[in-house]
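Why Chromosome partitioning protein ParB? Reviewers of the renewal asked for a concrete example.
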Amino acid sequence: MASTTGKNRSILAGLVAPVTETPTVERGAPATERLSTRLTGLARVTSGDVKEKTLKLVDPARCRMWSRHNRRYDLLNEASCADLLESLRSQGEQEFPAIVRRVEDDPAFDYERALDYRHAVETFYGGVAQRMAERLEVPKAWLSRFLDLGKLPTDVVEAFGDPRQLKERHARTLKPLLADDASRPKVMAEAKRLSGVQAAAVASGKGLLDPAKVVTLLVKASAAPASAKKPAGKGVMNVTNEAGATLFTLARKGAKRVVLELSLDAEASNADFQAAFARELDRVRPKA
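Here is what the prediction returned.
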C-alpha cells in the first residue's frame, strides 16, 4: 500500500508538469479595427450626431406630485385628456417619459406659465424681474406682462371659470382698471358676480362665458357710475363686502330685536350676503 507522502508527491508532480499544448486563441476583428469603431462612435456622440438617453421604469405607486406643480387637476376629465387616454390604450403603457419640457411659445396655458414665473422671480431672483429676464434672455417688458398675469386677484381669475382660458393680453387690459382706486371696487364686484355665473354654468353642464365676453363685462363695470349710498340713520349700520358694496343694513329695535334690510341691487354675489349675514349673526347673537 503506497504511503501518504508518495501520493502527495504524485499530485505535486502533476501540477508542476511542463505544458506541452499551445492554447487556442479565437480570431476576431483586429484590435486596431475595434478601436477605430469605438473612437468613431465616441466622436459621433461628442459632436451631437448621436444622443444617448436612459429611461427608467418606475412604479407609479412610488411617485408623488411635485410640491410646486401648477396644473389644476380639478379641471382634468375624460374629454380634456382624450388624446392621452387613447395613446395609453393603444400602446398599453405611457409611451413618452413623464418629465417633459413645455413647447416653446405655447399659448395654451399662459396663466400656469405666469404662476411659474412669479414663483421663480421671488424664489431665485430676489424679486428682481430684470435679473430673471437677463437669465432667460427675454425682454423685461415681456416677462413683466406674465408676472402681472400671475398677480391677478383670485376673484378675477375665477370670473373666467377656467384659468386655462386666461391669456396675458387679458391681464394687460385689466391691470390699469385694478390699479385705479375708483374702478377697482367695481371690477372686483363684477368679477365676483361672474364667478357665480360661471360656477352655475359648470354645475348645470352649460358652456362657460367666452373669455372676451368676460373682459368686456369687467371693463364695462369699471365705467359704470358708482351707486349712491343712502346715509345710515341713527342706530343703523351698513354691512358691506370687501369691494365696498353695501349688502344690507342692521337697525336695532330694542334690546332683543334687529331689523335687517337687504340691498338687492348690490353688486355682490349671494356668497357675499351669506358670509356677511353669518358674521353679523355671530356678532349680535353670540353663542352662550
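Residues 236-284 form one domain. This is the kind of structural detail the renewal will allow us to pursue systematically.
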